[in-house]
């Protein structure tokens, strides 16, 4: 049994298999998952686990060089936008890019996995692109 890091075996495997520029999606409970993209469903009930809880755990275990958010997050979910800005501008620095929500959904088609949280607030979704540790 692992002592540290992510205990969920599916998430641990996905992160271990990521190469440079591969990406995963952390999604709210409502984001559609494209056919053929593996879904790791963590949702237990509305709000559990939260978007922030899941991103925190993944960011502690993954080298992230770029984060993509839907432009709509700025107006529709300022709390999540501020959280992402704080999280990825400090020690875990990464480029943050924005696109329309429709474009965001198209990008999810190429994700290695979509990790579904229980978050029930609008636009609480992000694409986390893998970097390298050297």
UniProtKB/TrEMBL annotation:
<dbReference type="GO" id="GO:0062193">
    <property type="term" value="F:D-ribose pyranase activity"/>
</dbReference>
<comment type="subunit">
    <text>Homodecamer.</text>
</comment>
<dbReference type="InterPro" id="IPR023750">
    <property type="entry name" value="RbsD-like_sf"/>
</dbReference>
<keyword id="KW-0963">Cytoplasm</keyword>
<dbReference type="Pfam" id="PF05025">
    <property type="entry name" value="RbsD_FucU"/>
</dbReference>
<dbReference type="InterPro" id="IPR007721">
    <property type="entry name" value="RbsD_FucU"/>
</dbReference>
<comment type="function">
    <text>Catalyzes the interconversion of beta-pyran and beta-furan forms of D-ribose.</text>
</comment>
<feature type="binding site">
    <location>
        <begin position="123"/>
        <end position="125"/>
    </location>
    <ligand>
        <name>substrate</name>
    </ligand>
</feature>
<keyword id="KW-0119">Carbohydrate metabolism</keyword>
<comment type="similarity">
    <text>Belongs to the RbsD / FucU family. RbsD subfamily.</text>
</comment>
<feature type="active site" description="Proton donor">
    <location>
        <position position="20"/>
    </location>
</feature>
<feature type="binding site">
    <location>
        <position position="101"/>
    </location>
    <ligand>
        <name>substrate</name>
    </ligand>
</feature>
<keyword id="KW-0413">Isomerase</keyword>
<protein>
    <recommendedName>
        <fullName>D-ribose pyranase</fullName>
        <ecNumber>5.4.99.62</ecNumber>
    </recommendedName>
</protein>
<feature type="binding site">
    <location>
        <position position="28"/>
    </location>
    <ligand>
        <name>substrate</name>
    </ligand>
</feature>
<comment type="pathway">
    <text>Carbohydrate metabolism; D-ribose degradation; D-ribose 5-phosphate from beta-D-ribopyranose: step 1/2.</text>
</comment>
<dbReference type="InterPro" id="IPR023064">
    <property type="entry name" value="D-ribose_pyranase"/>
</dbReference>
